[in-house]
């Protein structure tokens, strides 16, 4: 894997100003960095940050059975406080490229919209925050404190050789963070909508009910596992797992697959299988939730249903950054630039914030995410400009507040 530092002029027909959030987003989108391939994205950011005086590292992490993944850590400044901006440059596959109305890696801009895979998830958010950081330091060269970037190429994949290892790598080198801003696309419809201060956990279970195969005309000689499966799944969903908490919605269980693998209508199958996923709030840990699922199944099965439950290991736990000074600083910056105070939310899927929260308080804020992972993914140019302004305002108030403290 090539981690050689390259000049910025390598990344386009002309050198662009990386403090321009639109130009930087376009340059990033043009890097085909589909997980786990670096695709030139981290090399681009290395060139950008090195040219601005950052010390840049690009560690590569490995694990058995997993692809090697390149990551990036950069820092400008030697004293605290340290505000780290986190994100990922890897993107999901384009799918059916013929279904796209534009080249998914061209980064074209038409009618105020920037098109391409990763435009909103999350190259646009990362580019806008980086552009803001560059401009802030240019305008405030004597500002106290440090700005760091923690960027992975493994967020959309297994998340084994990415942020979780990059954090440990940085910690082992003596790096300490005071707060983190993660640029995931948090806004549902407009740039004033939402800040994420936490995330639900995710737990997946695989349930198998064993019966006895036989002829449907001789049910006394067979044991249909579908009846047992229906009963067990009903028991899992009969009673809500909880009523939610102050900042979290109720935990939610969804059955995602149900299969008996039986092509014949006159055969009772021998086995029924189901997979379910639970997005859980801070009422539960993975261990207590797994115990509750097992209890419900055991009570429903009694002595008549033979089943097996396998709960998959998870590193996605529920967490929350308590509202306080840092959360308020982010909300204040959003309100100042958009005219509306954003809601504080814990909705949605998981993110790398689940790893970062072990090292410092983390808040997520980014662009509108309506097209993430979709064909014709895109982001509004105006949203990139707004996010750059919000981030630059936040940096000013953050370092001023920390200096006074």
3D structure, described in words:
The protein has about 400 residues and is α+β, with helices and mostly antiparallel strands. About 30% of the residues lie in helices and about 25% in strands. It has helices spanning about 20-30, 40-50, 120-140, 165-170, 225-240, 285-300, 325-340, 355, 380-405, and strands at about 55, 60-65, 65-70, 70-75, 80-90, 110, 115, 145-150, 180, 195, 200, 200-210, 215, 250-260, 265-270, 270-280, 305-310, 320, 345, 360-365, 380. The chain has a 6-stranded mixed sheet, sandwiched between helices. Strand 2 (about 60-65) and strand 3 form a beta hairpin. Helix 5 (about 225-240) crosses helix 6 and helix 7 crosses helix 9 (about 380-405). The longest helix has 24 residues, at about 380-405. The radius of gyration is 24 Å and the shape is elongated. The relative contact order is 0.18. The model has no long low-confidence stretch (mean pLDDT about 95).
Summarize the structure.
The protein is an alpha+beta fold.
Label this structure with key terms.
405 residues, alpha+beta, six-stranded mixed sheet, four-stranded antiparallel sheet, 9 helices
Task: Give the arrangement of secondary structure elements.
Blueprint: H1 21-29, H2 41-51, E1 55-57, E2 60-63, E3 66-70, E4 72-76, E5 82-88, E6 109-110, E7 113-115, H3 119-139, E8 146-152, H4 163-172, E9 179-182, E10 194-196, E11 198-199, E12 201-210, E13 214-215, H5 225-238, E14 252-259, E15 267-268, E16 271-280, H6 286-301, E17 306-311, E18 319-320, H7 325-338, E19 343-345, H8 353-356, E20 362-364, E21 378-380, H9 381-404
Parallel strand pairs: 5-8, 5-9, 9-20, 10-19
Antiparallel strand pairs: 1-4, 2-3, 4-8, 6-7, 7-21, 11-18, 12-16, 12-17, 13-15, 14-16
Helix pairs in contact: 1-3, 3-9, 5-6, 7-9
